[in-house]
Design brief:
- The protein has 385 residues and is an alpha/beta fold.
- It is built from 12 helices and 18 strands.
- The strands form 5 sheets. A 7-stranded mixed beta sheet has the order 5-4-1-6-10-7-11, sandwiched between helices.
- The radius of gyration is 25 Å and the shape is elongated.
């Protein structure tokens, strides 16, 4: 059975507040949506992931999914039901056997949860992740006075992902066009008479709708990523011909350049080694050997992004990066904020999690003699144990 995940992230998060839609706010250093997409994109039972977005948030989306194997996004509609229908229509050429529809504000769609939904689709037209209600239920009047109790037997709280046979749910959504009162896709399926099963969800599979929810999500992620690692990197490049140096991805005018096989960004080389060191995954020379002509003149961003992808493949997160540049010239201080922003964007973290600083060796050694630049980096990672 071929299955595609459709992630609904076209909302603007009005209830959450702030200038950025909630699906793009940082969660432990990475956009909330990225956690959601990564879980589904890396699941072996999912053949593709498509995200339904607000076109006005396209830059936020591109940053959130950078490096992840996703299909091109599609624009959403005026309501959730319309957004889902448009997403389903966009899959017509692919025509998968099944589609898993998931909220972009639920960052913890774990592999076992996806497994249960896919298993439910083997015997039913739909399968919905849900949890049985364990709290007592009360009915209130307009003044919040209790007017009665409700029987909780057989009552479940629906979550996502909600999986369906593709053609059946597409037909159901087409028939439900304009029905904004249908709060989830299971309701659309019920209206169409589809056979839908409930499969066990997860208490951690929360939907972030408030800042308190985000705090809880950070606690969940910190609990899971309890293997804290620190890696260090060091690199040196001598001065050579040129009229600028590239440091932390920022070009700085200078009377000389740095000699190297790639763009000789000594800071990003040290940063790459620090990330790989924390992962226990060799060094930059092992993954990008200088003897390989394809890396000649390559921007060092490539090396950093590859190391970051290795972190994400292991369901990890970068908590902090600290880079020190050691040189007499050029002056680094005027460029540190630009460097910080560039590094943060590559790492997928907030700039407050990146430190860039410079020092000299008081005229001592090869850096003191102005023969080159050295850099050292320290990176802290959080990985699942």
């Amino acid at each position: 059975m071929t299955a595609v995940a459709l992630i609904v992230a076209a909302g603007r998060g009005v209830r959450f507040g702030g200038d950025v839609p909630k699906q793009y706010v940082p969660l432990c250093g990475q956009p909330l949506l990225r956690h959601c997409v990564a879980h589904l994109a890396l699941h072996p039972g999912i053949g593709g992931v498509r995200v339904v977005i607000d076109p006005g948030a396209r830059p936020h989306y591109e940053a959130a999914v950078d490096g992840l194997p996703v299909m091109d996004p599609v624009p959403g509609g005026a309501s959730r039901q319309e957004s889902v229908r448009l997403g389903l229509e966009s899959l017509a050429d692919t025509a998968p056997d099944a589609v898993l529809i998931h909220d972009g504000a639920r960052p913890f769609c774990r592999p076992d949860l996806v497994d249960r939904v896919l298993a439910g689709l083997k015997t039913h037209a739909g399968a919905v992740a849900a949890l049985p209600v364990v709290d007592s239920l009360k009915r209130a009047d307009s003044d919040n006075g209790v007017v009665g109790s409700l029987d909780r037997a057989g009552v479940w709280r629906a979550q996502t992902p909600q999986g369906f046979r593709y053609q059946a749910i597409l037909d159901a959504h087409r028939s439900a066009t304009g029905r904004d009162d249908l709060t989830d896709d299971a309701a659309v399926a019920e209206l169409a008479g589809l056979d839908v099963a409930l499969v066990l969800g997860s208490e951690d599979n929360l939907k972030v709708t408030s800042s308190e929810d985000l705090d809880r999500a950070e606690g969940i992620l910190a609990r899971r990523q309890d293997d804290v690692r620190v890696g260090s990197g060091f690199d040196v490049h001598r001065f050579g011909d040129g009229n600028a140096v590239v440091l932390c991805g920022v070009e700085i005018p200078h009377d000389r350049g740095l000699a190297g096989h790639s763009d000789a960004d000594v800071a990003l080389h040290a940063l790459t080694d620090a990330i790989l060191g924390a992962l226990g995954d060799g060094d930059i020379g092992r993954h990008f050997p200088p003897s390989d002509a394809q890396w000649r003149g390559e921007a060092s961003d490539t090396f950093v992004r590859d190391a970051v992808a290795r972190v994400r493949q292991r369901d990890g997160a970068i908590a902090h990066a600290d880079i020190t540049l050691i040189c007499e010239t050029p002056r680094v201080a005027p460029h540190t904020e630009a460097m910080r922003a560039h590094v943060a964007a590559m790492l997928g973290v907030d700039p407050t999690r990146v430190s860039i600083k410079a020092t000299t060796t008081e005229g001592l050694g090869f850096t003191g003699r102005g023969e080159g630049i050295a850099a050292q980096a320290t990176v802290t990672l959080r990985l699942p144990s």
